[in-house]
């Protein structure tokens, strides 16, 4: 196990990248602490798989270095890095039995026969595959196959990290939850560093202690699920995390007052003069509907009742503006919207600006 | 899934049955007809029962050509299958050169059998052919028109040249269907080159290789044109394989009864091997 340090890492698939846009992965500095459970979250094509492949050694980065503890592994091949990786589609060795599949990485490394037997037995028990040890791996279900992929990492006690590349893509929904829980339990028990790539926020938020959100080849925020929810560092994070995403509207900020949607609202903190494009971000969860005249004038286009709560899709000053109402709450006739000033985030050119003053947590 | 059973559906097969009857079963029946009768012309036939079959099965000549046939087929399979796989493994997986390799590989397959025979006939001639002359120049005593071994060597070499490509293309298709992640996972698992071949590439090529072996078996078992044009079955009877022997009996000696019986035995052997092969493969699938 090891701490993984990314030092000014960047990657381009082009031979001679010129502009910033040529980079699939823009410069990133980050330390993955030993034993952490991380999720790399972002939409397709944001560079998260590229980053994962650089960590595993399948790709050599164009710039920068990657260190496991203090050892520079930038140019080492995957087998020399001692990592395990679970891919999007289960990779199993068709002709081998389940037990042989798990023994394969050990046999390749010349581990003694008795030791292999012991470790494979343990891994089988952990994954709940003991009853199928001597079955051909080919006939198993997708989730069992994916467990085998994971098991090939688990049998190697000393792996520096286990990497997951959207491992639940082909798993049935009801099995996803179970596998994720099992994964979490394995992490608690063995403390492997785990890095989990996904574009599914639920997967990321339930699995990880820390979520790394990527957008267009850039890491836009690293934080706990709460931080991502309460204080998205980038409007993209606000939009991507949460369902529905954060409401983002253009605004003007003057000191501790913000003006948007034709109204001015007092904030509990002050801001310096902001240049560039300023926007307000407010989560639909912190928007309350009120009777006419009380709040911001909105035009409700539809209400989606999804059981536990209602999503109100509305427009405010021509921008989409959603609100989440608790179960059973009624939508008043000619409703207006009231926002919680403490929950308002201010963005300058899409990046969060932290205000100063009262109530700043 | 529940299958719908409706026996009336069999009537839908009738048109196909009719066409197959016209182009396969009816001609085959004439052969069956000849195989149990004797004729002295004028459409006068005498029933002979199983006489021709017993004669063929007891004949040393038939045994000899069958042995030559089996030896040729076995040699061809032993060389072409591993060679084809080896070439497919060395071909680039994608890009410009992959296309170039594919076109080069496909070229021999586009040449008609008799042209291949004629080409090699001239190419291997010891006095004017590049191959024959070259071998002699290098100090080998090589003359396929006189030496049985040289004739065999040339027939096998010609077939390898003509048909290895087919195995290559099939094996290559099998290799291409392997997802990159398999190679990545194997790399992470520390697999050697041999282990990658043994546990990833070979299992994934199993289906196409089965087809390749079956096709190469049938083709080589029924090979006629190429060795006929190249050696005419000679020198002596050295390269007289089953089909050449059959044509000699039927058209050279006009032994229609013997030839018909031989045809049927020949046909049954091919059918038997294909059936065995199919059954074994299907059995393997079920496991």
Would you mind describing this structure in some detail?
The complex is a heterodimer of chains A (361) and B (287). Chain A is built from nine helices and 23 strands. In chain A, 25% of the residues lie in helices and 32% in strands. Chain B has 287 residues and is mostly helical. Chain B has one domain: Orthogonal Bundle (MetI-like fold). Chain B is built from twelve helices and two strands, in the order αββααααααααααα. Chain B is flat and about 75 Å long. The relative contact order of chain B is 0.12. Chains A and B meet through β6 and α3 of A and α8 and α9 of B.
Compile the SSE list and pairings.
The complex is a heterodimer of chains A (361) and B (287).
Chain A: E1 4-11, E2 25-32, E3 37-41, H1 48-56, E4 63-68, E5 71-72, H2 78-81, E6 83-86, H3 98-108, H4 113-127, H5 142-154, E7 161-165, H6 173-190, E8 194-198, H7 201-207, E9 210-215, E10 218-223, H8 225-230, H9 235-240, E11 247-250, E12 252-254, E13 257-260, E14 263-266, E15 278-282, E16 287-290, E17 296-297, E18 299-305, E19 309-316, E20 319-326, E21 336-339, E22 345-348, E23 351-353
Helix pairs in contact in A: 3-4, 3-5, 4-5
Chain B: H1 14-35, E1 37-39, E2 45-47, H2 51-58, H3 60-90, H4 96-106, H5 113-123, H6 130-137, H7 148-176, H8 180-188, H9 193-221, H10 225-230, H11 242-252, H12 256-286
Antiparallel strand pairs in B: 1-2
Helix pairs in contact in B: 1-12, 2-12, 3-7, 3-9, 7-9, 9-12, 11-12
């Amino acid at each position: 196990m090891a701490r993984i340090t990314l030092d000014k890492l960047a990657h381009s698939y082009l031979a001679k990248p010129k502009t910033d846009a040529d980079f699939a992965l823009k410069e990133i500095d980050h330390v993955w602490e030993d034993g952490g459970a991380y999720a790399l979250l972002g939409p397709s094509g944001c560079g998260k798989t590229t980053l994962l492949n650089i960590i595993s050694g399948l790709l050599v980065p164009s710039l920068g270095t990657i260190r496991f503890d203090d050892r520079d592994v930038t140019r080492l091949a995957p087998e020399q890095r001692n990592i395990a990786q679970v891919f999007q589609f289960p990779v199993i060795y068709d002709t081998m039995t389940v037990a042989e599949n798990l023994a394969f990485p050990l046999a390749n490394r010349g581990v003694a026969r008795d030791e292999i037997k012991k470790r494979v037995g343990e891994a089988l028990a952990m994954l709940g595959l003991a009853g199928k040890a001597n079955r051909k791996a080919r006939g198993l279900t997708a989730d069992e196959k994916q467990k085998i992929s994971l098991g090939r990492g688990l049998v190697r006690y000393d792996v520096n990290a286990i990497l997951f590349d959207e491992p639940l893509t082909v798993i049935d929904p009801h099995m996803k939850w179970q596998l994720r829980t099992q994964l979490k339990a394995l992490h608690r028990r063995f403390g492997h560093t785990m890095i989990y790539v996904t574009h599914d926020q639920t997967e990321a938020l339930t699995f990880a202690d820390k979520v790394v959100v990527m957008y267009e080849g850039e890491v836009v925020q690293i934080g706990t699920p709460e931080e991502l929810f309460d204080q998205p560092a980038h409007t993209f994070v606000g939009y991507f995390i949460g369902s529905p995403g954060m409401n983002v509207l253009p605004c003007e900020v003057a000191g501790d007052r913000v003006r948007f949607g034709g109204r001015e609202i007092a904030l509990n903190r002050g801001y310096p003069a902001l240049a560039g494009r300023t926007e307000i971000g407010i989560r639909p969860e912190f928007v309350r509907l009120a009777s006419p005249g009380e709040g911001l004038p909105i035009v409700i286009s539809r209400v989606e009742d999804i059981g536990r709560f209602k999503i109100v899709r509305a427009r405010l000053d021509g921008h989409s503006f959603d609100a989440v109402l608790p179960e059973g709450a009624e939508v008043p006739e000619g409703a207006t919207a009231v926002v919680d000033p403490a929950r308002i985030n201010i963005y300058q050119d899409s990046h969060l600006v932290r205000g100063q003053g009262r109530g700043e947590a | 899934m529940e299958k719908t059973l409706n026996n009336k559906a069999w009537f839908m097969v009738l048109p196909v049955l009719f066409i197959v009857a016209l182009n396969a079963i009816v001609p085959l029946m004439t052969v069956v007809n000849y195989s149990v009768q004797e004729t002295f012309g004028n459409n006068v036939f005498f029933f002979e029962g199983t006489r021709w079959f017993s004669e063929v099965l007891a004949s040393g000549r038939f045994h000899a050509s069958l042995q030559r046939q089996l030896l040729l087929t076995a040699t061809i399979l032993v060389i072409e299958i591993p060679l084809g796989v080896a070439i497919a493994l060395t071909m680039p997986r994608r890009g410009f050169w992959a296309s170039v390799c594919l076109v080069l590989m496909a070229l021999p397959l586009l040449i008609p059998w008799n042209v291949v025979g004629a080409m090699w006939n001239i190419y291997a001639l010891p006095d004017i052919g590049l191959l024959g002359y070259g071998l002699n120049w290098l100090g080998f005593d090589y003359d396929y028109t006189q030496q049985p071994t040289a004739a065999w060597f040339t027939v096998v070499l010609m077939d390898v040249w003509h048909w290895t490509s087919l195995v290559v293309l099939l094996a290559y298709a099998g290799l291409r269907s392997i997802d990159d992640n398999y190679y990545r996972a194997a790399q992470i698992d520390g697999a050697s080159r041999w282990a990658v071949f043994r546990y990833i590439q070979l299992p994934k090529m199993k289906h196409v290789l089965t087809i390749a072996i079956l096709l190469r078996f049938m083709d080589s078992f029924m090979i006629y044109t190429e060795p006929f044009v190249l050696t005419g079955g000679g020198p002596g009877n050295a390269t007289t394989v089953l089909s050449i022997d059959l044509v000699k009996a039927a058209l050279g000696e006009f032994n229609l009864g013997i030839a018909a019986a031989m045809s049927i035995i020949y046909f049954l052997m091919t059918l038997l091997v294909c059936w065995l092969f199919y059954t074994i493969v299907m059995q393997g699938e079920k496991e």
